[in-house]
């Protein structure tokens, strides 16, 4: 399916600094998948690679919405860390906890839970220092959006008439974030 987009829609896409591209999903789904991956890899300066996994795009795909974001920054103040340990101290009364933050997912999950619970339990403003970390998430948003009752875009009866005169719908919505 070769979509022809309306001028007003293309102008809005340009204004939002987004990009759109036609692809031949039916005959060249592997090449389209690779083109998306190459685009995302280049746009994120090689931080996000292999954005679309095999099987996400198939000959039955009609359209795909992708969202790739990454953040790579430095803290304003350096974080002084003990080997594999972090300590949180309360002001006034002395309360401290030590968390093993090794590189395993268990250590990071434990840290996330403790930080969240600590912040939630403190009734006044506190300063919390967090070391440099890396988080990566990738998920297909179809199910989440449908659960939020945003079902129309994924239906063959979707109305994208302000975008194009060609009848279309969204086959996949994919999000990946790297911090």
UniProtKB/TrEMBL annotation:
GO molecular function: serine-type endopeptidase inhibitor activity
InterPro entries, sorted: Serpin_dom (IPR023796), Serpin_fam (IPR000215), Serpin_sf (IPR036186), Serpin_sf_1 (IPR042178), Serpin_sf_2 (IPR042185)
Protein name: Serine protease inhibitor, serpin, putative
Family statement drawn from the similarity comment of this UniProt entry: Belongs to the serpin family.
Serpin domain sequence ranges: 2-81, 110-179
One GO CC term, this protein: extracellular space
Pfam families: Serpin
């Amino acid at each position: 399916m070769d979509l022809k987009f309306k001028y007003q829609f293309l102008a809005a896409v340009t204004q939002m600094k987004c990009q759109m591209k036609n692809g031949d999903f039916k005959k060249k789904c592997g090449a389209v998948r690779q083109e998306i991956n190459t685009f995302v890899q280049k746009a994120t300066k090689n931080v996000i690679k292999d954005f679309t996994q095999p099987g996400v795009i198939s000959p039955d795909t009609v359209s795909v919405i992708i969202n790739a974001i990454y953040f790579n920054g430095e803290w304003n103040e350096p974080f002084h860390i003990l080997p594999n340990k972090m300590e949180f101290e309360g002001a006034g009364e002395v309360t401290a906890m030590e968390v093993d933050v090794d590189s395993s997912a268990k250590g990071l999950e434990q840290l996330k839970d403790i930080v969240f619970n600590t912040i939630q339990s403190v009734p006044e403003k506190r300063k919390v220092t967090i070391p440099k970390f890396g988080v990566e998430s990738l998920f297909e948003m179809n199910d989440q959006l449908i659960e939020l009752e945003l079902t129309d875009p994924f239906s063959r009866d979707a109305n994208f008439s302000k975008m194009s005169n060609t009848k279309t719908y969204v086959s996949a919505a994919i999000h990946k974030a790297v911090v």
